[in-house]
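sorry for the late reply, my laptop died twice this morning and i had to redo everyting from scratch. anyway the thing you sent over, i finally got around to it. pasting the sequence first so we're on the same page, its 293 residues, then the predicted structure underneath. double check i copied it right bc i was rushing
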Amino acid sequence: MAQMNPAIEVQALSKTFPGGKKALRRVSLDVYAGEMVALIGASGSGKSTLIRHVAGLVQGDRVKNGGVVKVQGQTVQASGRIRNNVTSIRRNIGVTFQQFNLVSRMKVLKNVLAGLLGTVPRWRGTLGLFTKEEKLQAMHALHRVGIADTARQRAANLSGGQQQRAAIARTLVQGAKIILADEPIASLDPGSAKRVMEILSRINREDGITVLVSLHQVEYARRYCKRTVAMRDGVIAFDGPSMELDLDMLRSIYGEASEELVLPDAADGEILVADKPRQKVRINTPALEAAAA
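ok and here's the structure:
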C-alpha cells in the first residue's frame, strides 16, 4: 500500500526543446512509495519526457525555485542541473523502454546480469565475470517473469514480449526500489502486453516496488493501476482514481485525440489485477542452478 513518504517528487519542472517547443510546463507530481501509477497521454503529451527527467537522463530548464526532481528523498536535479551523485541514485531506479535496450547478440542471462554492473567491481563487469550466486540471482529473476528457459538464447531470438520481460528481470537483479517503465507495451501484441502488465503489477504487490508506467491506452491503466496521471501538452490534466477516467472524461481532456487512447474493442473499465491477493511463486531451485552453471 502507498505510504506517506513520496518515492518520486517533481516540483515545477519545465523542459523546452531547441526551437522553442515546450515539452513540460511547470509539472509537479508526487508518487508515493508502493504505488503503481499510470502515466497516460496522446503522442507528444510529455509523458516520456517526464520519465526521462525523473531518471536523471536529461535535465530540465534552468529556472529559479523550480525544476526539482527527487527520488527517495535524494535530489536528482534542480534548476536545470543534474546532481553529481546521480549515478548512485540511479542504482535504485530501474528503467525499461519501449525498445527494451538489450544487447541483441548477447545471451539473455548476461543481459539480465547487466543489472549488477553498478554494484560489482568494474573489472568483473567489463570482463563479464559473475559468480555462481549472481548467476542464480539472475535465473530467479528470469523465473519470476516466466522466461527462465530462454537464459541461454541470444536476446535477438526472443519475441518482443519476452525481451521486455528480460528487461524487467534486469531491474529485479539491479535491486531497484522504483521502476520507470516508458511505454513498455507500445510495440507488443495484446497477449504479450497483458503478460508484461501483469508482471509489473505482481512485482509491485509482492515486492512493494514503486512503479510509474507510461501507457498509450487507458484500458491498461484502469485494469492495472489504481491511480492515473493524464498529461496533455506538457501539463497534468488529470490526477486521480483510474476508474474515473471514463470515455466522457477522456473526451473532455483530449477532445478528438481521446480516440488515440482507447482500444476499439475495450470494455469500459474495471481493475482486474490490482486487488488480487498475493500468490507465492514456486521456484525450482535445482533447475535454476543447473541453468546458471
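Residues 41 and 231 are 5 Å apart (CA to CA).
thats about all i looked at so far, will dig more tmrw
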